[in-house]
Specification:
heterodimer, A: about 170 residues, mainly alpha, Ferredoxin Thioredoxin Reductase, Rubrerythrin, domain 2, 2 domains, three-stranded antiparallel β-sheet, 5 strands, B: about 90 residues, alpha+beta, Glutaredoxin, five-stranded mixed β-sheet, 3 helices, globular
Chain lengths: ~170, ~90
């Protein structure tokens, strides 16, 4: 059991589900099983506490609408994988970090601070930023995605990031 | 605010703001244990709503992003995140 009464079997099952979903989508979990298990236990605790699987390394508000961006996998995972080789928690890591050739870095918080989020939710700047994302095309399978950078691995055909071209 | 005190070698007033669910917070806490220093910590996610708000404001004062772990030494030196080398250097 975790400190908050989550049965071990529930955590184990969640680890397996997260691992399978990651592998199916071309993502890699941290190579340290104990570290992964502790983070997943945190996700299970947050789900029990707040009713949604909030990031274990961030303080959730308890209001799902305010925390949509930090429900694991969070909105920032892929940008952090692209820039640092790990997500904020280092639950998800790049191939280099997984192989141990690159040290998992200390990823700075990309989520806007509380006051900035408040301002963003009051204005419309947030929406226009999202609409201006470039679109990337996987040259191998034609998968299209609108985001800052192409994924490290194509979630459809598993081609590497360098096989993507900017489509629009 | 509810703080847990850990006895050890006195290297100044050391306060760790952490989350009970966070892997890097756990690593930071383990490192402080390994260094054997005296410190106080609080798991902000486990505080009552009023205490939590106070704690968040305190963290934001030292670290505007309001992220965890935030380690504060003597109310002046602030280390955000599990920056092992920096923590070791600051507390040696």
């Amino acid at each position: 059991m975790t400190g908050e009464g989550i049965p071990d079997e529930m955590v184990d099952a969640r680890v397996e589900k997260i691992r399978k979903d990651a592998e199916d989508g071309g993502y890699i979990l941290n190579p340290d099983p104990a570290f992964v298990r502790a983070l997943v236990a945190g996700i299970c605790i947050n789900e029990q506490r707040y009713g949604y699987a909030a990031c274990p390394c961030r303080l959730a508000s308890g209001n799902r609408g305010e925390d949509l961006d930090i429900i694991c996998p969070c909105d920032y995972r892929d940008s952090d994988l692209n820039d640092y080789g790990a997500c904020y928690c280092a639950l998800y890591v790049s191939a280099g970090v997984a192989a141990g050739t690159i040290q998992a870095p200390c990823v700075p918080e990309r989520r806007p601070a509380r006051q900035e989020r408040k301002k963003m939710s009051e204005g419309s700047a947030h929406v226009s930023r999202k609409e201006s994302m470039p679109v990337w095309r996987c040259r191998v399978c034609g998968y299209l995605c609108a985001r800052e950078n192409p994924p490290l691995v194509c979630p459809i055909c598993k081609a590497s990031q360098d096989r993507f071209v900017r489509f629009m | 605010m509810q703080m847990e005190h850990v006895k050890g070698r006195r290297r100044g007033e050391i306060i760790l703001y952490a989350l009970s669910t966070c892997g890097w917070c756990a690593k930071t806490k383990n490192l402080l244990g390994e260094l054997g220093v005296e410190y106080s910590y609080t798991y902000v996610d486990r505080l009552s709503p009023a205490e939590m708000e106070d704690a968040i404001r305190e963290v934001e004062k030292y670290n505007p992003s309001g992220s965890f772990p935030t380690l504060v030494i003597d109310g002046s030196r602030v280390i955000v995140g599990f920056r092992e080398a920096e923590i070791r250097e600051a507390l040696k």
